[in-house]
Every structure is written in structure tokens, then in C-alpha cells.
Design goal:
This protein has 12 helices and 10 strands. It has helices at 13-25, 36-55, 61-69, 77-81, 95-108, 124-128, 162-174, 190-206, 212-223, 229-236, 238-252, 261-268, and strands spanning 5-9, 28-32, 71-74, 86-89, 114-117, 137-141, 151-156, 178-183, 281-284, 287-290. An 8-stranded mixed sheet has the order 3-2-1-4-5-6-7-8, with helices on both faces. A hairpin with a 2-residue loop joins β9 (281-284) and β10 (287-290). The termini are far apart.
């Protein structure tokens, strides 16, 4: 599929990262968010990422200028998706919100455009059924930070067409991602395993088994994980992990998936991980440190 223009709906951490990669590929990339402050924050995070690359001599100013020329922000979704070949939705993990967006996309996006959702746990088929074009809807689950993580989990529901799957795989390849294809089951292949490991690590922390940093070190050095489960939870966002666990508990009718009470408390307090400066760890510009109040 020949991609010329892409719209990313939602300018949060994931949406901004996806838009950044699309712009770097060379596509006309439109980043949309209903909240102007959030939209500007997403754009700022992209430029900060590029500036850090320049400071580390991994990126040049010329590259940043070329990439920036491919990137624009929109406060009107209809204008953002006009004439695009691909829409990637990256809004919060709320089924009703995603369904409403896809109903709108069916009406305003070109009929040839692939309509992708970046959900990390909600069932794609349920999102697709909100539209009259489920064959064009597919899951494209990226990982944070999107510019650095090589995996793209493509999720196919029962009504998704072969052409849409092939297009998503081609898009992922062009982005430089390694793609895997999974069935539309709760939690897919990655989130289901990842959140359970993180939730159990939180339980171990609560039980006093070890400190957060020692639990993470155990998994990094003992099992060759590139990042421990608690640090990863903070990086992904405790609110995201919390939503996925609740969705899994409901989907499987199994209370074992419910978030640990500490995770409930942190999310309720707005302590969501690295993005808020505090989560399982305390975060600063110098890195992370163990909390003594958990």
C-alpha cells in the first residue's frame, strides 16, 4: 500500500511517538488532539526527542528540519484525516471513546484508508463493530517509546480483510518495525503477559520480598529482561496497566487479573509513573529512585 499521508488521533505519549516515527519515514503526518494543550505537549515532546538526538550526535539538525516539515498539528479531526491513507487512533483505553472515534472516522476518512487502533488490550472486533466498515479496522499495537521499540503487534479480528492485514504489515515494515500477527483475544500476546508480570511484581513489593530496584535487577540479570517489570510499568504508565488489568478481569471473568490495591492507590492519586514524576519509583532528570512510602 502506497502511504502518502497519515493522521494520528491522540497526542499523548503513544500518539506523539507514533507521529514522530511516521514523520521520520517521510509521510505527511497530521497529529490531532481535541485538547490544544495536550496537542502542543505532544509536539513539544517530539522536538525534545529530536533535540536530545542532536545533542548525542545521533541525529543532525538537517534531519530534524526534514522531519519537522512532514509534521503538522490539527485541532479539527475532519481536516486532519482528509485525504489520508492511514489513521492510527491512540486515545485512552476507554471502549466507548474509541468506538465513537471510529464511527466518526468512517464518515470523514477516505474510503480507502486503513483505520488502526493502538489499543493495548481492548478487543479490536468490538471497536470495529461500531462501524459499517469492519474490514478496514485493525489493531496496530506499538510499544513505548515508539521511536526506539522495534516490535509492532498487529491484531486481526474476524471481520478484518486480508488486504488490511497485508497493508498493516507493510506499513510496519516501512516504519522499521518487526511485526507479529495475533488473534483478537483479550490482552493479545504482549499485554496479557506483561501486565500480569508487573502486577505480581507489585504484589512482591507490597509483601516486602525486596525493594523495587532489587526486583527489577533480578529480572534484568537473572532472566535477561532489558528492563524490570516495575520500571517498565512506570514507563508505560500505571493508568494504562491498570486499565488493561481491569479489562482482562472483566473479559475472562477472573479476579486474579484485578490490579493490586497499591496500583489502585497510585492511579487514584495521579501518580502514574515517569510521565507524572512519581509512580512505583520517584523520577527526576537524574533517573529513578526507590520510594520509601510504598
Amino acid at each position: 500500500m502506497d502511504i502518502r499521508a497519515v493522521a494520528v488521533v491522540g497526542a499523548g505519549t503513544m500518539g506523539a511517538g507514533i507521529a514522530q516515527v511516521c514523520a521520520q519515514v517521510g509521510w505527511d503526518t497530521r497529529l490531532y488532539d481535541t485538547f490544544p494543550d495536550g496537542l502542543q505537549k505532544g509536539m513539544d515532546s517530539i522536538h525534545t526527542f529530536w533535540d536530545k538526538g542532536i545533542a548525542r550526535e545521533k541525529t543532525t539538525q538537517k534531519q530534524k528540519s526534514e522531519w519537522s516539515a512532514n509534521l503538522s498539528m490539527f485541532e479539527d479531526m475532519t481536516k486532519a484525516v482528509a485525504d489520508v491513507d492511514l489513521v492510527i487512533e491512540a486515545v485512552p483505553e476507554i471502549m466507548e471513546l474509541k468506538q465513537d472515534i471510529f464511527r466518526q472516522l468512517e464518515e470523514i476518512a477516505p474510503t480507502h484508508a486503513v483505520l488502526a487502533t493502538n489499543t493495548s488490550g481492548l478487543q479490536i472486533g468490538e471497536i470495529a463493530r461500531a462501524t459499517g466498515c469492519p474490514e478496514r479496522v485493525i489493531g496496530m499495537h506499538f510499544f513505548n517509546p515508539v521511536p526506539l521499540m522495534s516490535l509492532l503487534e498487529i491484531v486481526r479480528h474476524d471481520s478484518c480483510s486480508d488486504a488490511t492485514v497485508e497493508a498493516a504489515q507493510s506499513i510496519g515494515s516501512t516504519m522499521g518495525k518487526e511485526t507479529i500477527l495475533v488473534r483478537d483475544v483479550p490482552g493479545f500476546a504482549t499485554s496479557r503477559l506483561g501486565v500480569v508480570l508487573g502486577n505480581e511484581a507489585i504484589r512482591m513489593l507490597a509483601d516486602g520480598v525486596a525493594s523495587a530496584s532489587d526486583i527489577d535487577t533480578a529480572m534484568r540479570l537473572g532472566y535477561r529482561h532489558p528492563m524490570g517489570p516495575l520500571e517498565l510499568s512506570d514507563l508505560v504508565g500505571l493508568d494504562v496497566r491498570h486499565d488493561i488489568l481491569n479489562n482482562l478481569a472483566e473479559a475472562f471473568d477472573d479476579d486474579r487479573y484485578l490490579p493490586h490495591p497499591i496500583l489502585d492507590q497510585l492511579v487514584e492519586a495521579g501518580e502514574l509513573g515517569k510521565k507524572t514524576g512519581k509512580g512505583i519509583y520517584d523520577w527526576s532528570e537524574d533517573g529513578k529512585s526507590d520510594r520509601d512510602d510504598l
